[in-house]
Amino acid sequence: MILGFGKRKPEDAAAPESAPRGWFGRLRKGLAKTRESLFGRLEAVLSGKTRLDPETVDEVEEILYTADLGPRTVEAVLERLRRGGGEGDAPLQRVRAILRDLIEHPMTAPASAPADPPAGEPRVVFLVGVNGAGKSTTAGKLAARHGAEGGKVLFAAADTFRAAAAEQVEIWAERTGCHIVRHQEGADPGAVVFDAIVAARARGCDLILVDTAGRLHTKKNLMDELIKVRRVAAGQVPGAPHDVLLVLDAATGQNALAQVREFGPALGVTGLILTKLDGSAKGGVLVACAHESGLPVRFIGVGEGLDDLLPFDLDAYLDALFGEGTPE
């Protein structure tokens, strides 16, 4: 996975034992509802059993679907069980081991890494997704993270169709001490992005976070508009947008997976951000989205604070989801 916006460095991926104090504890706490919904129910069904009869397998299937792991993942688990995967172990250990292996090894090949901008040019990052997923808030948290690392951020308030959308972004710009380019409501989003790139160059900003629209009259209108804005960015900075991050609300479950299917191919999505994991028992959808698309999960949201948008680390996620590791 690529953490942050530059090329991945091995030391960037913070495992639980090397993470800042409280990081793994927040992750584990954020996944508590999902962990209980999935493994608490599996344990209730499988504990004490020495074999998996057809009725029990049906119960396991229902639990996996309820956790929003996605149809491909669920079917892969069931297929391995039918083929005798983990035979000899207790049923609960068999299911846990198969699940962990499947999560670690997605069925779809990983997507290609995001592009780098030419030297001296700003990195242009689009945040896409439906309204209510948390794009503006995520942009603010990413800006705070990048600023803390010494970067200089400019927001492009390119959702000009929703009332008060630009005001939301402006609040985050003020809160994080970042620059912003916004136009009046109903303005051309492409013009906002064009002006943002010009302003970023003039002000020495190295990162442009583009907050895009999440809803128009139809899905086709939305996708056409976002594709047009992409073309504007590409016409100004080679390779732009260098990152297209799809922001998903984990609480929506399978709707999030549907959004990956809709946004991903049309917009060239390069990574996923799952928000609101702390308030959802449907955190298994993270597995479904990454597993079926091959897109890397870049960040996960486990709270409302600026520091509650955590870089995604697979080992830490697995330990927190499976109830392993040591809470801090």
Summary of the model, kept short:
The chain has 328 residues and is α/β, with parallel strands linked by helices. Helix content is 46%, strand content 12%.
Can you offer a commentary on this structure?
With 328 residues, this protein is α/β, with parallel strands linked by helices. It has a domain at 123-269: P-loop containing nucleotide triphosphate hydrolases (Rossmann fold, 3-Layer(aba) Sandwich). The chain has helices at residues 23-30, 32-46, 54-66, 71-82, 91-104, 135-148, 165-176, 189-203, 219-236, 254-267, 285-293, 314-321, and strands at 123-128, 153-157, 179-181, 207-211, 243-249, 271-275, 297-301, 309-311. Strands 3-2-4-1-5-6-7-8 form an 8-stranded mixed beta sheet, sandwiched between helices. α6 (135-148) packs parallel to α7.
